[in-house]
Design brief:
There is one protein chain. The protein is mainly beta. The chain has one domain: Neuraminidase, CATH 2.120.10.30. The protein contains four helices and 29 strands. The longest helix is centred in the N-terminal third of the chain and has 9 residues. The chain is globular. The N terminus is likely disordered. It holds the Pfam family MRJP. It is found in: Secreted. Belongs to the major royal jelly protein family. Keywords: Glycoprotein, Secreted, Signal.
Length: 434
C-alpha cells in the first residue's frame, strides 16, 4: 500500500477590512463585520508532545540513537503541506523537520494512520533511504525547511544542504510526482548564488502557468544569507537578489512569545505571488518579508524574473523597483495568498493569523486578526492554502513553540506541535472552522 492510500471557489467574497479600534500590542488591527473574533479557533488536525517517528526496523532506531543521529529533543517540525488526491476527502499530510543541528533522523515525513505511545506516527518521505546519509550523499535530502505542492500534484522540495551551517551539499531543488514518488525535476544551485557556511534556504514558491502545468520560475528564500534566489526553470539558470530590503531589522531580532523570549536574526523567509485570476486588475507582484522585521515588501514579478537586472554582488540592482508597502509592528513567520488576493500570515505578537487584502493599502485599519490564540498559535512557522476535495480553499497551519525549543527546552508533558485548518470562506466570514 503506498503512502497516499494510507493518508492520513471561487465562492470567496472579497471583504473590505474596515477600521475598528482594538488595543493590541502589534497595532490597531481591524475586526470588521464578518471577519475575525467570530471564529474562535482553528480546527484541530494533529497534536503532539513530541514527534513519534517510524524507522525501518527497531535495530535501525537503536543504531541512530547510539550514534547521536537521533535526539528527540532536536526534532522540531517547521512546515506542513497537504494534498487531496482525486476527490478524496482525506488528504495526505506532510511535515518538514529541518536539521538545525544533529539528531534528526529524517527531514521530510508524512502523517500515517498508525497511533503510537506518543501519538500519530510519522514516516520518512519519499523513503528513509533519501535521508539516512545525513549529508554524506548529495543525491538524497540533507535538510528541508519548507515545501510547496503545486496544483499538478508535484511536491517542490527545497533542500538547504547544510546541517548546523556545515555545507554538506549544494542547496538543491527537487520536484517529486506525488502519485508515483518519482523525481520529475532536479536543480542544484551554483555556488555563485549562495554563501557556503552562511546560507540557509528555507522557502520555495512556485510560479505555475495559469493554463497548464509548466513552472516558469521558482523563488527561494535564503533567510540567514539574507537574499532571494530566482530560478528560471526552462533556462536552467538562477540569480540572486540581495539588498537592504531582504535583510533583518535590528528592532525585530527579539521574539517574545508566551512570556519567553529568544533571538533570531533572519532575513527573507516568506514569499507569495499575485494570483493569476487578478492579473487583469493588478500588476503581478512578488510579496515577501524578512522574519526579523515588520516590513511588508513587494516588487513587480516581471522585474524579479528578468535575470539581466541582477548582477552578482550588486546590492543596488533594481533597488528603485522595491516597494515598502507598510509595517505590521510585529514579526510574521509563514505567509500564504488566497486566490482572491488575501495575504495571510502567522503573526508572532499577538499569536494570530493576520489578513490583508492586497487591493488596499498596507495599514493597520486594513488588516484583520482572523484568529488569535495565545496557546495554539505559538510561532506559526507553516502556513499553506490548498484546495480540498470540493475545490474549495483551506488554510493549514503548523505551530511549534519555537521559543521553548530555542530557549529553555520543550516540555514533553505538554502539547508542543499542532496542525490546524479552516476553510478560507469560513475564516474570512467569521464562521466556525468545522
Amino acid at each position: 500500500m503506498d503512502y497516499l492510500s494510507m493518508k492520513c471557489q471561487r465562492c470567496i467574497r472579497i471583504i473590505a477590512l474596515l477600521s475598528c479600534a482594538l488595543g493590541i500590542v502589534a497595532g490597531q488591527y481591524s475586526t470588521a463585520p464578518g471577519i475575525g473574533y467570530h471564529s474562535k479557533a482553528l480546527e484541530r488536525v494533529f497534536e503532539a508532545r513530541n514527534l513519534e517517528l517510524s524507522f525501518p526496523t527497531p535495530k535501525e532506531r537503536e543504531r541512530v540513537l547510539r550514534a547521536g543521529l537521533y535526539d528527540p529533543g532536536n526534532v522540531v517540525p517547521i512546515d506542513v503541506d497537504v494534498y487531496y488526491t482525486h476527490g478524496d476527502k482525506t488528504p495526505s499530510i506532510f511535515v518538514t523537520i529541518p536539521r538545525f543541528t544533529k539528531g534528526v533522523p529524517y527531514s521530510l515525513a508524512y502523517v500515517t494512520n498508525e497511533v503510537r505511545e506518543n501519538g500519530t506516527e510519522l514516516r520518512a518521505y519519499p523513503s528513509y533511504d533519501w535521508h539516512q546519509s545525513h549529508g554524506a550523499d548529495c543525491n538524497g535530502l540533507t535538510s528541508v525547511y519548507r515545501t510547496q505542492i503545486d496544483d499538478c500534484g508535484r511536491m517542490w522540495i527545497l533542500d538547504s544542504g547544510e546541517i548546523d551551517f556545515v555545507q554538506h551539499c549544494p542547496p538543491q531543488l527537487y520536484a517529486l510526482d506525488l502519485a508515483s514518488g518519482g523525481v520529475v525535476h532536479h536543480y542544484r544551485l551554483p555556488q555563485d548564488v549562495y554563501k557556503t557556511g552562511v546560507s540557509r534556504f528555507v522557502t520555495p514558491i512556485i510560479e505555475l502557468d495559469a493554463h497548464n502545468c509548466d513552472v516558469g520560475h521558482v523563488y527561494m528564500a535564503d533567510s540567514i544569507g539574507d537574499g532571494i534566489v530566482v530560478y528560471d526553470v526552462a533556462a536552467q539558470k538562477s540569480w540572486r537578489i540581495e539588498n537592504k530590503y531582504t535583510y533583518p531589522h535590528p528592532d525585530f531580532g527579539t521574539f517574545k512569545i508566551a512570556g519567553e523570549s529568544f533571538q533570531l536574526w533572519d532575513g527573507s523567509v516568506s514569499m507569495s505571488v499575485t494570483p493569476h485570476g487578478l492579473a487583469g486588475q493588478l500588476e503581478r507582484m512578488l510579496y515577501f518579508h524578512s522574519l526579523s522585521s515588520d516590513w511588508q515588501m513587494a516588487i513587480p514579478l516581471n522585474v524579479v524574473n528578468n535575470g539581466s537586472i541582477w548582477k552578482r554582488n550588486d546590492v543596488s540592482a533594481g533597488l528603485d523597483q522595491f516597494v515598502l508597502l507598510g509595517k505590521r509592528g510585529s514579526q510574521c513567520v509563514a505567509a500564504a495568498m488566497s486566490e482572491t488576493g488575501m495575504l495571510l500570515c502567522g503573526l508572532v505578537q499577538p499569536p494570530s493569523i493576520l489578513a490583508w487584502n492586497i487591493r488596499q493599502s498596507y495599514t493597520p485599519e486594513n488588516m484583520a486578526l482572523l484568529i488569535e490564540d495565545e496557546q495554539r498559535l505559538q510561532f506559526t512557522s507553516g502556513l499553506k492554502i490548498v484546495r480540498n476535495h470540493e475545490g474549495k480553499e483551506e488554510l493549514w497551519a503548523l505551530s511549534n513553540r519555537l521559543q521553548k525549543a530555542f530557549g529553555t527546552g520543550l516540555n514533553f508533558k505538554e502539547v508542543n506541535f499542532r496542525i490546524q485548518k479552516c476553510g478560507i470562506y469560513e475564516l474570512l466570514n467569521g464562521l466556525p472552522c468545522h
